[in-house]
Hints:
Low-confidence stretches: none
Radius of gyration: 19 Å
Structural class: alpha/beta
Distance between the termini: 38 Å
Largest sheet: 9 strands, mixed
Number of strands: 16
Strand content: 15-25%
Helix content: 40-55%
Amino acid sequence: MRIAVYGASGFTGRLTVAELCRRRITPVLVGRDADRLWAAAVEAGVTGAETRVADLADPAGLADAIADCDAVVNCAGPFTLWGEPVVRAAITAGTHYVDTTGEQHYIQRVFDVFGKEAEHAGVTVVPAMADDGGPGDLIANLTAARVTPVDEMLIADLRQPGGGASRGTARSMAAVFDEGALEYLDGAWQPASGSQVETIVPPGSTAAVPVTTFALPGVITIPRHVAARRIHSAIRTDVAALFASLTPDTVDSIPETVAEDARRAGRWLMTADATGTDGSRAQGWVTGPDGYGLTAVIAVEGARRLAADGARAGVLTPAQAYDPADFLNFLAPHGVTWHVS
């Protein structure tokens, strides 16, 4: 099996290459700078790995660079700026695609623009396979099954401040704030009107955490497999304040990478709270350490499953492409736990 990594020289890209090597899957490193790609191969301990230079402005060259691969993992963000050419190249090349984006509006555009093209090409495209979008979508599916039919669902990212953020994440979150949040209401996506939920009690805690409406991937993905009147999203208010403070100057001053000790000290937590039309309630949660390391694991396993097991063609959510419980259970050896009640 050969899996290409576009943006392989970036922080998440290098972690993804390392995860492919750990899984003994042949990586193909693709990007815009030959020297940086070589350095990424050296860092991953695969000096013999194939590196290919492909520019986003060269659609034919980009498609050729991944055409002989079973799948491609796109790690080059902000995806709002640089994601679409890689999706289009994957469809042209007939190569299955996953990415690590968390950018809500970009994910919506991938579904709107590329759904029919991917289906006709026999290609499966799964955006948002990161520590928030992937597990969040999967746990939402399992939670919704407890209260069908669902009236309202709140998907929330309750990770605590700390654990570090890379420059790429900061740039993507700045783009998310600029575009504003969406919610799903009565069969359509629209600008979020406010969550109407000011606090959430995290699982295993008795203390309520203030939350703020925020543009999470689940608002775009969950309505495609969960029938609900309303789906909206939020994050901890203190984390939202950190993202809201980002400016071009502060983003550029953030280090490109996050130190391993800081990564491992952090912990991410996604929750899904569902209310049924009959007033019944269910909550699901999934949590794990090292969001960046787990993003690489999630994206690689997602790409591997598309290559080995297949999924129907088109643009799919994580819960449409993979069995939700099976995928979450696969992550258990990496410190991930989940529960629905």
